[in-house]
Amino acid sequence: QQQVKQSPQSLIVQKGGISIINCAYENTAFDYFPWYQQFPGKGPALLIAIRPDVSEKKEGRFTISFNKSAKQFSLHIMDSQPGDSATYFCAATYGNKLVFGAGTILRVKS
Amino acid sequence: DTGVSQNPRHKITKRGQNVTFRCDPISEHNRLYWYRQTLGQGPEFLTYFQNEAQLEKSRLLSDRFSAERPKGSFSTLEIQRTEQGDSAMYLCASSLETGRNEQYFGPGTRLTVT
Asked: What is d(CA B56, CA A28) in angstroms, rounded to the nearest whole number?
């Protein structure tokens, strides 16, 4: 019940396209949903986050859509760029700890 | 740069040896977290401190693992009698004590046990 399921495992998008990564959870006690971006050999970097009382949050080219009734949330990267090529993790807060999805490897082709 | 720092960045050790990692959080953050990340997986929670108090430990943290944060500033994670299964990236994160729980991660320490 503490799992966060993430899909797809990998994603290839053309430059300028939209990248969409989806996550689903079961535990309704989760109360904070961040997305992290990780480059090889680096730690995860906080990208954007949302609380369950909000259905959408946008920061620049990154948008989180949140569906509380379906217990799903997604990350949309608009106008994807080669520099966005990285591994993306969704996460959810349970107590004071983050529970992470398994990650999505995004490759943006130029 | 006032981000989270971790040392060493890489550690290679032989099975059975003890290793210790250090984490320096963002200076005003009073919460500090340790996570472990294996290849192709998301980070997994190990333990967390609020100031110097260790408030939660995962079942992943066997009795060979110990973490301290003696003065509420930097933290150390020690692994005794290392095993090959301990090979992973050990990540430290810190956050303020607010409802937003925005955790900021350091670059990690890559441990290889041979």
From this structure: 21
